[in-house]
Amino acid sequence: MSAMTVTKENLHELLESDTPVLLDFWAKWCPPCRMVSPIVDEIASEVTHAKVGKVDIDEQPELAEAFNVMSIPTLAVIKSGKVVRKSVGFKPKASILSMLEAGT
Q1: Residue 17 — pLDDT band, cuts 50, 70, 90?
Q2: Would residue 72 show up in a list of annotated catalytic residues for this protein?
C-alpha cells in the first residue's frame, strides 16, 4: 500500500483508525523532506500494522497548524486520534520504524 495523501477532508479516516498512523508533514521546496519522502513511501509499502499518510503543509496549512508543526519534515505517530510520538528533521528508516513501533 502506498502513503495516503492527507487533506482536511480525509484526515478523519486516519484519526478514526484502530491502527497506528504515521503522518509525514512535508513541502516540495524542503530538501530534508525530499530525503525522508522515499523512506516514508517504502515504509508505507512494507508495513501492514499501520497506515501511512503525507501532509503537504503548503496545500494543507490548517493541518500543519492543528498538529503544531513548526519545522519540517515532521513525523507524527497517531494512535486512537492522539499524537503519541513526534519527530522533527531527517530520520533514517530504522528510526522511523522504531518510532512507529513505539506507538503501537
Answers
A1: confident
A2: no
